[in-house]
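Regression test attached.
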Amino acid sequence: MTQEPEPPSDYVHGYSARESRRLHDQATTLAELLLSDTAYPPGARVLEAGCGIGAQTVTLARQSPEAAIVAVDIALDSLAQAKRKLKANALANVTLQCADIFALPFAPASFDHVFVCFVLEHLRVPAEALARLREVLKPGGVITVIEGDHGSTYFHPDSLEARRAVECLVELQARTGGNGLIGRQLYPLLVQAGFADVRVSPRMVYVDGSRPELIDGFTRKTFSAMVEGVRGAVIAEGLMDAAAFDAGVRDLYRTAAADGVFCYTFFKGWGVR
Amino acid sequence: MTQEPEPPSDYVHGYSARESRRLHDQATTLAELLLSDTAYPPGARVLEAGCGIGAQTVTLARQSPEAAIVAVDIALDSLAQAKRKLKANALANVTLQCADIFALPFAPASFDHVFVCFVLEHLRVPAEALARLREVLKPGGVITVIEGDHGSTYFHPDSLEARRAVECLVELQARTGGNGLIGRQLYPLLVQAGFADVRVSPRMVYVDGSRPELIDGFTRKTFSAMVEGVRGAVIAEGLMDAAAFDAGVRDLYRTAAADGVFCYTFFKGWGVR
């Protein structure tokens, strides 16, 4: 329970240019759904733990212009991209820093708020990470956690191969010590980590023919592209044969047609130290 | 495509006392989630198609006291229960009538609104039913449709047996000509039936340890009880053996513990004639 290993393998969330683009697409499409109700008051000290390439950091910083945000990540190359992104958006209220969630270089009770998005899914011991983050919160401080849940995926037309392809994503993530079904677990995880007044709000992405931006931004460029991106790993690990996996990916893209429907749910949770 | 057969087998939604109680529990718990945004103006003529035992009718009538509601069902015994329920609630703005959705005894364009809840899931040809209901709507009239989707179910702790038990529910419903995954299909079904300005709003029931009313009212008494209720049929049809099914049901009830989570999504759709 002590040390978290390397950042997640690029099986699931790599740091390739394509992957960066996908994460960016995702944040642009989902920013309102996930972040519109997160803004910090003037003078608040906020820690974003695991900022990655800054996909959420830009929105946080924009929505809380007078808060002081410290955004940390374990990966230097991600931080370099985050830095460029913040500069391009002329955002000056963020300090970037290289740090491990399991060895945070901050005194206890140094932050008013902690924000964690798409990070716990990669960790072997997410409750332990939450407990560490709780320590750097001031008493009365609030943590905000956002995670997806790949098991919340369903669609029309239904397809056995597409479902299996999504299950492969979960299985690959499990093999690297992560948890693709973590969204539904936020409530018990936050309680287990010692937080009080825990609340969780599901944020469902529902996409049908009347929502062309989400068809493109979510069904195609976020979710189907993410599944397509693990093709090599799925085949290398023998989880599905190439023909079945390709059929599954084709069926996922098929749900982006005018008569298709795609559903996925993120979970946003809060807890008080 | 012409005639709908008998009402659904009691495999899935029977008319036993226990089943009536479950449907009542469900409506009481879910009324706000599903119906709080449905109210009809004074003088409106509203058709509720497939009112069953009146679980939704009471809420509709209460929320639209000056609308004239005609509630029809194909089953006389259900109508008798609906009648008692309306009387017990002193609601006088509902006319009950025995009728088949596929042979409605109403002139074209006779209603301002049509309301259909938990009905399409039982029909072999739901788009055809919607087309018939469209005919009795006045031009500009609006249909409101609510359906569940058993494939939207997921929970924590996850359990293979519990997932299989839920799949049995879908399979049994399919064998009687119904569709337990119809919620996600409302948008294309309404479009296919000729409705304009189709909109769909997912209504997710999210249950965690902080929501004791939903733990009891939904996880236990609505969903887990519904799955438990098909035990005999599952075993008779050889879909699962008794031990595995019982383990699945136990695991469903397990999600009602303080550290458990249960998720299910209903879909509410609208279309304009």
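Expected vs. actual: identical. The interface with chain B takes residues 149, 151-152, 154-156, 158, 181, 184-185, 187-188, 191-192, 198-202, 204, 206, 208-210, 259-261, 263, 265 of chain A (CB under 8 Å).
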